[in-house]
Amino acid sequence: MMILNDKKLVNLIKYTPSIIVGFFAITVNVIIIKDNQDKANASIESLREDIIDNNKSAIKLSTDKAANYILYKKKRVIDELKTLSQQRVSEAYAIATSIYNNNQNQPKTTVSKLITDALRPIRFYQGRGYFFIFQMDGINILHGLKPYLEGVSAWDAQDLRGAYILREHINLIKQQDGEAFYHWWYQKPGEPLQKEYQKIGFGKYFAPYDWFIGTGEYIADIENDLKESLLKSVIDFEHTENQSLFIIDNQGNILANEAKESDLALLTHSNATLTKKIASEAHTAGSFMTLDKLDANKTNKNKTEIGYLRKIEGWDWVIGSYFNSSQVNKYIEIKQQEAQVLNQKKLFNIIILSVFSTLFMVGTSLIVSSLITRRFNRFQQRIEHNINALETSKKKLHFIALHDALTGLANRMLLMDKINEAIESAKKHNQLVAVVFIDLDDFKKVNDCNGHTAGDELLKSIGQRFKHAFEAKDTVSRFGGDEFVFCFPQLNTINEAYVKIEKIQQLFEDKFIVHGHEIKAQCSIGASMYPSDDHQAEGLIRKADIVLYKSKTELKGSATFYHHRLNEELQYKYLLENELRGALSNKELYVLYQPQIDTKTEQIVAVEALARWEHPKLGTISPNEFIAIAEEIGLIKQIGLFVFTQACKDILSVSPNGKNALKVSINISPNQLMSPDFIDSMTQITDEIGLNRSRITLEITENVMLNELGKTYNILTELKKRDFCISLDDFGTGFSSLSYLNMLPFDEVKIDSCFVNNITVNEQSKALIKSILAISDAYGMITVAEGVERKEQLTVLRTLGCNLIQGFYFDKPLTLAKLQKNCLKR
Prior knowledge:
Keywords: Cell membrane, Membrane, Transmembrane, Transmembrane helix. It is found in: Cell membrane. The protein is α+β, with helices and mostly antiparallel strands. The chain is built from 24 helices and 26 strands. Helix 1 packs antiparallel against helix 7, helix 1 (6-75) runs parallel beside helix 8 and helix 16 (636-654) runs parallel beside helix 18 (678-689).
């Protein structure tokens, strides 16, 4: 038994308080640190779930967007095939009509051969398509693929289903005013005779020879073309850099794979087990799936990724997107390591405190206890502060992920969620949803005049007005740049959408104060509605954007609601823009010449050069369409130079320089006239070709003079010095033409056809033309009347003293060959 002596008792008294305090201090701190670690781990796990959920939402969004696009294009296959068939037959009909009209004096056999020879070699649908011609009694006139059938009757031809192919098509053409679509089943080249495939074709009645002209194509081939196109385009759909899109078939074969070049690509032909599993588990509604694969280093570690799969109904395709969850794990591991370092530092501080407390415990336990208690309280506060800071950071990250950094408004991701929620609610309650796309007009001027900082402040101010002007259920998002998108849910009538849009426009009535300056802003608006315009968020936004473009083009500051025709018009305009860029290099543009006739002698004394565009697939494109597009995309100068050069060469070839030589009028666009090198380039071209400049009349319209009259005067004066003649086109249609005659050196005035049309029935039009002629005579100018189509109009204009006329009464615009033939008659 141990004897407790004084020395031992002193030691016990001396060391026991320190030991007890140290023990309890360590115990308390261990508990606190463990609690802190538990909270940190829970917070990190929550962060992990949020990051994975956000990534899953992102891959679902990108996959659904790509899948919906594929379904839309698939649904449009038959409509597009019908449209293409009708366009092709219309082209063939136009060719046949043109040949017939130009050879009416020839025998029918000669003209028929000209037509069949012209149509026989034409191929389309990637070389598969061809034309056929049948008499209305079933005799084959032309078969582009099987010429040995020509001259043979196909009246009794049947498919495997017993349908009389030719009879039914001819009956439909007769019933439907000379043109009709037709579905039939037919053998494909290279396939067994007993196997037929569905075709869709179009036929058009050619009255002069009791024919119909037609063509057709297999639906399966068009679908295959579409699949091939989609495999190239869909894989490039917009998505985050941490995602990978892929498309496989129902057997697990890889059709398209964005990450195929990577050594660590998940989907490869060597990993057939995984691709077959994906193909078997995918369904049309879409689903998430965990994907595993052995990594490239052949270790035992698996590469784990989360994917979203969706099966394309009607095709043997599965489209999907995936992200690597190991990246999330790495991010979480870094956060865990940071938390461990922080806890170790805290533990070290606690140990130092315990030693310090033990040394001072010898004095008085109360003081030491008090000090220890206060110190522990401080540590507790610090720990709680760190936990609160972590929670705050988490909330900030969540906010940043869903909101625009500049304005604090919702970003695209949050907007898409809100629109989808609104659509689901509208489905349940039979309501409407409006998506409104807003773009600030002339926002670039704000940046140019006031700086980008002022532009950012203006966007913030607009965002604040938007945020406080509408109900909590409404969502406004900054979509990018100076674009904003509203989602207005729970609407009962479209009038409520009009009220919302009117309120948006009212917000721009008051000026904005930016850096002490007043700035007046204006916006253009495009709107689309669920369910009438689309059933998907992406589609509603896209269609609202389409009509926004239309709104800005036609009248800035206006609001326009979506209509399906606007989408078709815009797609057609984009097509023309792309095709026009290659029209010159492809030699699709050419020049025709409209004769100008002397009213006294009725002889051709001049021509007007007119640009024309013949597209190999779209056919003849109206100048009213492609000239405006050329102005917009900056090609008008190149086209103008081409027309000017070609016209100079052509006129010199049919009429050499000399007395009574044929003159030529050439239209000049405002952009072309105002270019710095215009005068020198015109002079150089005429010098190189050798055409006297006095034979050239440059036609300009009044709008070129509206903003830069002084500059226009200098240019026209210099052109006059270089012997060019100047004509004022469309005289009388503007507001200031009379003043321009007094100020600018014009040689000629052209009277617009709108006045000539009514000259024989409207005394006001006749009096107006009489006044124009009197003014022109007073200034010593030549007058040219456009649009003369009847002899009565010619008689009146000759009586009134008009110098020259042009119009269909004498001739339509002529090719160079026909113009040369007419000139020889002179």
